[in-house]
Amino acid sequence: MLNIQNRKRVKLSNYQIGRICIVGMVSLVVLNFVLLSIRQKIINEKENSAKLFAENIRTSITVELKKSIDSTGVLKKLFIESDDVFSRDFEILGEIFIRDIKTMSAVYLAPNGIVVKAYPESVYESTIGYDILNDPEKQKDAVRAVLEENTIVAGPLNLIAGGTGLIIRNPAFSDRKFKGFAIAVINWDVFKRNVMTSLYPSLNNYNFAVWKDTDDYKKSDENGYIFSNTSKPVSKNVVIKIEIPGDDWYLAVEPVNGWFNIKDSLIEYLIVVLLFLVINGMVIISQIDNANVYHMLKYDSLTGILSRDAFYSTVDKLFKDNAYSSYDVLVADVENFKFLNSVYGKEKCDEFLKYFAKVFEERGPKGICARYGGDKFVTVFPSENNKGIEYLKNETTVTINNAPIKNVIVKYGFYGDVDKSLPVNLICDRALQAAKSVLHNYDKIVESYNGKFAKKLIKEQMFESAFENAIKTNQFKVWFQPKFDSFTEKMVGAEALVRWVKDDEVLAPSEFIYLFENDGLIVRLDEYVFTKVCDTVKFLIEQNLKPVPISVNLSRNSLYHKGMIERYKAIIQERGIPIEYIPLEITESSSTNNKQIKELSQSLKEVGFKIHMDDFGSGLSSMEILNILPFDELKLDKSLIDYIGDTSGNELLRHILELAHLKELLVVAEGVETKEQLDYLKNYNCDMIQGYYFKAPMSQEVFMEYYKRQIAEGNI
Ligand code: C2E
Ligand code: CA
Ligand code: CA
Known about the structure:
eight-stranded mixed β-barrel, 22 helices, 47% helix, binds ligand C2E
């Protein structure tokens, strides 16, 4: 299963819930069906064996009965074959029957329906002379026997001689004339006992009951049965008919344990229920998994807001669905995020991102908000009176001050009334370009993308083609900004900063350096500035003006350019100036690997160059660098100086200063603009100060004047 951090946000879609419900319901129906089938199968099996048993009972009953019926057939012959109905044969036969047939208790002869002979006579004496056909109660069966000319078994009945029995009346005819009855009496209790004995031992497994559908018999028990082996009612699942001569009996059989018992199929039941649970469990898990994957793809795992790809597709759909509405895009980019990461640690910075995402989504211009990646966020919303920019005016400072890390600067790029025909990523890129254009720009937090950017592109192309000529005609000028000792406030050095004097306009490096860095022309520009600075130092020495180190900025391209060290060394040697007067300012970059920059700076040091770590504390540097590079001076970026006044900012600066001094580095604070900043820096023993508070960069001419004055005043 997939592991995601903000699982609590995972929600199943209605579609998925529906799917789970359908699978649940269908499998419940199937489960029910299967369980019922199992049950039915067991019942069927039991019914089949019950039927077999019922047939056994029927056989036992009829077999037991047949013996007595057959005996009445023998007696009947006495009427038909012999004229002497009172023959002694009756006595003999009666004796034999009663002795051999256990169920039989008496036999009678009743010529013309009147009993004249009974055996054993002593017991049944009272029945002699009994006129059967005229008995108001019992004549019915006897009359039927005569009319149908068939044996009829009546009972169970209360016998005249006492007890309960079945009475078999077998009518005899001669020349189709009724001659009389041959009668046998069956002892009902013995009959029942005999039948049951013959069924033993199956009786332990089954209950049975026998009943008659007519009322004119003696009911044996309260359940209305004439015959049963239980005192309880017997279910009528399996019922068969027993045809008794002249009568119908019914027989029901049931297993003692009932037709169905869960124990009979416990394993099958368990397997089926388990299968049901497994199937449903798997469906639920797979749906949750799907939801997780979907959620992971859709939402950013750290902040929980939309991910970039989900943002693209959502906005794409939004634009298509609202072809006639206009939209704005606002991109937020955290300044110096890498540095913050190395100072505050990943955890704290993640917390900041989470906080920022929440604020940006909840309090920003209401729209579709997403993490654009890393420290960048984006939101798209309907165009409405510059709502995006309004939000920045009202909210940014408040939100940032309440953040887990204080004083973080966030820069914004705004692209109003976007061109919806462009792909969403390009639209966002435009806003991002605008945001990037104000990174490290201390005065601005937001820039709008507009036609200016297109114009800028043209301007950039023009600049690139003008470069060659600008070098040749000395359009690039070196300006100088002095550095001062924090305590003596004497000038202890300067930094060379290039300017491009183009058509009477003085262009700042921010307008062209990045361009030449992109196309590699910077290598030549840096060397040009380096040469000019060497010339300046040589001039100072020649003029007997006490020189100070004048540092030169080296971009990464220059640093990595093949043969750079030799060329720079040659330039120095040609002019015969001490190498330590031209320190090189380098920056660490996230994209460079530390090993390479370490080797290069080591080689520079071996040649004799002093190395200053520039822009320390800006987005491009990290604390690690203090341990890696062999540099001589640390230049604190202006963004750090701007933290002064804030408690955590003060702390941070103090730590950096302590650490740097521990490593015996000289520290320069750049961009110092106020007395408060100066006092603070002095308090924490910052060695040098560079900034507008003392002096802004000056052209060569102005700087020379200033320089001479400083010497004259003893300030150098
Ligand atoms: P940097 O090396 O950090 O230079 C310091 C920048 O801060 C300079 O901007 C300087 O004018 C400005 N500055 C100094 N004190 C203050 C202050 O108190 N307040 C404010 N707001 N700004 C102050 P500049 O001259 O515009 O240079 C910008 C950047 O261009 C430099 O930043 C450097 O990275 C680059 N650069 C300048 N010259 C060269 C060069 O010859 N070669 C290369 N590769 N880069 C250069
Ligand atoms: Ca610099
Ligand atoms: Ca700097």
